[in-house]
Structures are given as structure tokens and as C-alpha cells.
Amino acid sequence: MGKSKRNSPKPDSNRAEKLAARRAEQEQASQTITRPFEGLAAECDLVALREFVPSATATLKLSPSIAAERAVTLATVLPGAVAALVRAGEEPIGFVGTQVQFQSGNPAADLATAILWTQSAEPGESLAGATVEGAPSLSDVLDNAALDLTVHQDFNWWVPEGVTPDRQVAATIEQANLAIMPSARLNLGADAVGAAWWVDAGEKAHLRWVRPEDEDQLMLALARLHAAGELHLGEGSRFAGSFRTHGLLVPVFDLDPERHAVEWEPAAKEFGARLAAALKNDEPMSSEERRSRDGLRSRQVTLR
Prior knowledge:
This protein has 304 residues and is α+β, with helices and mostly antiparallel strands.
């Protein structure tokens, strides 16, 4: 007896479209790179720029093996959330975005493709989305150095200095500027681990600290501090939870919004020292520390 076709969707049916979309999502998920920026000195900042920093730029240092034709600026988001563009001028400049509309499961390869595209594209052109097929490793394209970041409190840098934008572009920038939240990267010294970013969200301020350690080891250290009553940044702060993204764990603190970013730097340095000590602690966990770990894990969110 032939196999029943009762449960087989018709080719043009909505169910067939849903199944095809589900298969495409599953295929993309299987190709997603868990920790795409691993091994790069700028890993933690790249994750922050992709996930929550509103407006920041940095001039990229390309690998000596790349025959660079023009300078490249890394940005959080470009007009239209394109992957890259080349700004016309006496010396054209390439721009690549980290927060893009179209992306694959390997953002590092996307970024590498976009960087190389800027070297041969014509001034005025833009790249909607990067294709990663045959893309080189980002570590082969970039000089492995930390990012020298400029944090902006607006998007006026979308337009070159001295250029008057047309009405539509000006309206887009104005709308983006109205929605932006004041942000800053904490300066915790040359020996600081990870990337600590402050943002004023209105009723509360937040500190999101992207950390490079193994997730399980970092969660254990956070649990030890929590059990000891040391999981905080002092008065006016509260540990809010953590989220996982790009293979890293990001502890988040709620902060008193009346204090600016620089006022939190001493407390953040002290917390960083306590966390470093907890990471080195290899004693067996106490029952209280295990309860703390379970509680912290229940407040953990996975972004991707």
C-alpha cells in the first residue's frame, strides 16, 4: 500500500510555507557560530557594539596582509542599518556597521566581508548585507588590537562635517537623536577585564559588563560573591541579572541615575578585584553558594 499523503502539505499552502520557513530557521541555527569574536582583543567591545551600545565609532586597524585602499570606520549602526558604505570625499572612507538589518549566523564573517567590500566599492555605494560564503576570518582582516572607541550621544556623525543633509535625512537623524540614551564606556584601567558600559535609561541607569571568561566559571564566581553579599557596586546599585550573547556572559547592574558614569568607576574597579579573586577560588561550593548559583541562573536571559 502506498504511503498516505493526507498529512503532506500542498506545495502552495500556508502550512508548506511555514514548514519551509521552519526548516530555513533550523538550518541557519545549525550554522550559527557560538562565539564568533573569540580570540580577538576587541571581542567584548564588539559584542557590546552589536547588542546594546547606541552610537559609537572606531577607526579600524587592518591586517598588514590586507592591501588597504582606504580607511575603515567601525560603527554601531549606519543609515538604513546597512552592512557597509563608502562615504565620498577627497579621500573616500569606508564605514562598516555592527547592528545590521541582514546578517548570517556568523557575524564575524559578515564583518570581515563588509570590511573587504569597502576597499573596492565606489564612493556613494552601500552594502545591504554581507555574504559569508568564502569569507576570510575576521582575525585575518583586522590587526588584533583593542578598539580606540569614540562614544557619541547623537547620530550627527552620519553626515560629514560641513555637509547639509536633505530634509529626509535630517528628519531621520533628528528622530534617531530623540531616541538615543546617554551612554559611556567606563575607564577601569589598562588591566581591566572585559568591557563595562553605562547607560542612562531614564528612571534607572544600567551597567552592562561584557566578560570574556568561560560562562560556567563566571557564573560560579558571581554566585560566590552573591552568597557573601558582595554582588553589587556599592550604595545605589543592585545586581539585576545577566544575559548570554555571542558565547559570553554579561552581568547587569541597576544604578542610581543621579550619578554619572565616571562616578561609578571606583566601585566598578573594586568589584572587578572581588570578582577576580572569586574566579581564582577553587574551593568546593558551599550549599549557600549553590543556592545562589541556581537563583542567578534563573534570572539569566539568552539573547542569541
